[in-house]
Amino acid sequence: MTANELRSKYIEFFKSKNHVEISGKSVIPENDPTVLFTTAGMHPLVPYLMGEPHPAGNRLTDYQKCIRTGDIDSVGDTSHLTCFEMLGNWSLGDYFKDESIRWSYEFLTNSKWLGIDPSRLSVTVFAGEDGIPRDDVSANIWKELGIPSERIHFLPREDNWWGPAGETGPCGPDTEIFYDTGDPSKPEDFKQGCSKGRYIEIWNNVFMQYNKDTEGNYNKLERQCVDTGMGIERTVAMLQGKKSVYETEVFQPMIKKVEELTGATYGTNSEKDCSIRIICDHIRAATFIIGDPKGVLPSNVGAGYVLRRLIRRAVRHGRKLGLDKAFLGDIAEVVIANFAIAYPELEEKKDFILTELLREENKFLETLKKGEAEFDKLLPNLMRNPQKVIPGRVAFRLYDTFGFPIEITQELAAEKGFSVDVEGFKEAEKKHQELSRTQSAGTFKGGLADHSEITTRYHTATHLLQQALVQVLGDHVGQKGSNITAERLRFDFTHGAPMTKEEIQKVEDIVNEQITRDLPVTMEVIDIEDAQKAGGIALFGEKYEQKVKVYSVGDFSKEVCGGPHVEHTGLIGKFKIQKEQSSSAGVRRIRAVLE
Ligand code: SER
Fold it and tell me: Is residue 373 part of a domain?
C-alpha cells in the first residue's frame, strides 16, 4: 500500500463512520506564538477541542503536514524526519473511548482496510498518576477485541499522556498502538523491544479530558474529546515490510534523483547514505514550508530561520556528495510531482518554490565563498599556532558573522593539517544562545496565546484593520499574513507603495472609531459557495471546508474566520499603528499595538 492509498483509505474509512473530511491547515500556525510550526495533526484543532463549535460538525477527519525540528540533528539516521504527514480523526464531545478504539482496531485489522494480522498488535494504556486513575476502560475494550493481557501494557504519564501541543491547552491520557516487526510467537520485553525498534508506534488515540492552564493546573474540559494521530511515513514503511521510511515510495524518487545527480548509489556507503537522507528530508520540508498557503521565506528569525537552516544543511550535504552547483530545485521538482495529488498548492506554486530555493541556495554558495576567503585571511596567523588547533571562538565568529558552518571550517582546517576546537565552539555558541534566549524570552510568555484574552482582542482588531485598509487604500488590499502575540499584531497586505502619514492616521482613526461604537461581534455558519457568491466577505486564498464561519463586526466588517473574537469592540482598547514598512515586493507590513 502506498502513502497515497493509505491517505485515501483512512479518510474513506472515517467518512464511512460519519466523519466529515476537513482540509489540513497551514504548516505555519496562526496566532500561536509559542511554536513556529504545526507540530501535530490536532494542533489546528485546539480551539475546537477547547469547546469552540466547529462548522463541519463533531466528527472530523483529515491529513496534515507537520514539522518538528526538535530532533533535527538526528535526521540522517533511518527513522528521524523533520517533516511528516499525520492522519487524524476527532470527536468533539461526540464519541469517546469505545468507538475510538473499536474503529482503530477495525481499520487496522479488517481485510477491507489495512488487514494487519492482530497478533502483531500491542497496545499501551495509561497506568494512572497524580490522582488521575488508571485507564481500565480502554484496557477492557482492547481485551474484548481480542488483544491478550500480555500485549496490553500499562505505562506512566511519561509514556501514555499526550499534550498540550503548546504550553497550555487540551491534553489527556492516551492509548498507543504498536506494530511488531519481529516474530510475534517470540515476544520480548516491551520497553526493550521498543527501544530496539522492534515494536513501532503507528497510532495514538488521545482522550482529551483536561486543559492545562498557565499555572500548570489540569482542569477538566467541559466536554470529552478524542484526538488520534497516525504517522503516514512510518505506517506505510511497516505495511510494505520496509525497515526504513526512506525505502518507501515516499522518498525513493528523491533518492533516485540524488543518485542521478551525484553518481552515488544509496545503500553502499553509510556516510553518503546519511547525507542523501538529510537532503531528501530537508528539501521535502523546505518545499512544504515555502509552498504552503501561508508559506514563509528564508530569513534570520523564527520559522524563516529554521527554513534557512534546512536549506543550508541540504546544500552542505550536497557538497559532501560532490555537488558544487545549485541542485535543490531538481529535488524539489520531484517532491512537487510526488505530493501534488495530496497538496495541489505545491504544483500551483511550483515556480515560486523553485525560484526561492535557488535564491537561497545561491546566497549560501556566496556565503561559503566569502567564508572561505575569510578563512584564507586568518590562515597566516593560525599557522603560527604550534598545536595546529583553530580556537573555538574563531570558528564561532566564522559561523556567527559569515554563516560559515563549523563542519566546513573543519573541512578546510583538515586540508591544512589543522583541527578545530569543537568544545570551544560549542561553549561560544552556548554563551551566545543564552544571551539571545534572555532577549527573546518576552516573546514567548503568555502560553498558547490564541486563547488568552489579549490575543482575542488583537484578533478582532485585525479584522477592523483589514477593513479600514480596504476603505482607505482600495479593494486591492488583500491579507498576505497575520501574526499575533500577546504584545502586538502584525499584518501583511498587498499594496504597491508605502502608506503616507495621512493614510496611516486615517486607518488608525477608522479602527478606533469602530471600537468607540462598541459594535457587536457575531458569528454565523454558512456554505462556502454562498460566502463566495455573497461578495463583501473577506476570503483568503486558501482551502476552505464546505461550511465556514463568518464573523461580522457590526455593519463594518465580515470575514471568513475560525475565531475566537471579543463579543463587542468596546473590549478591544485603544488601537495604535507603530510601524508601516515593506514586507516583500508589493506587500506592506503593519505592526500595531493595543494600549
Ligand atoms: N496528538 C496526538 C499525536 O500527535 C494524536 O494525534 O500523537
Answer: no
